[in-house]
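Morning F.,

Quick status update on the modeling queue. The single chain you submitted on Monday has been processed. Sequence for confirmation:
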Amino acid sequence: MNKVPMTVVGERALRDELEHLKKVERPRIIASIAEAREHGDLKENAEYHAAREQQSFAEGRIKEIEHKLSHAQVIDVTTLPHTGRVIFGTTVDLINLDDDSAVSYRIVGEDEADVKQNLISVSSPIARALVGKSEGDEVIVKAPAAIFATRSTAFSIFDAHPALISLIIIITAGNVPLPLLELC
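Structure tokens below.
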């Protein structure tokens, strides 16, 4: 079975969600089902069906989180030696060469990814292109319907090991440029 990479923060968030589902949501849903059963005929009882649907969702999420945690490869990047390469957990500052706009991303696990917080999944096209690269490397990124170039000006590993790096990222696949955020 493949390991699921995640940061220490991501693992903690999943464990907290699991605990909340088991200790708060599950008992609340069970109480809702019991209360709905007291109302009589279950075939036409909308409250009962809604509570059962909530129960199904919560139990499915519990199983999903337990599976991910059992296959988790928790990576504490602050303990890794600084090699000058982009790795999982690295924060990378990128400049779009077309319009000189800058954006900063941190490469995290799939469950932690949130583009609004500039956290991109390790499996995203940009992250896959960046991982393992170092100063001076040129990278071609294949992504749906986008062509533009960016240059990484600096990167750090959770801001613990700052280092300068210069990467050229060319994102290709189609003829219509997309905003950088849509590719993550």
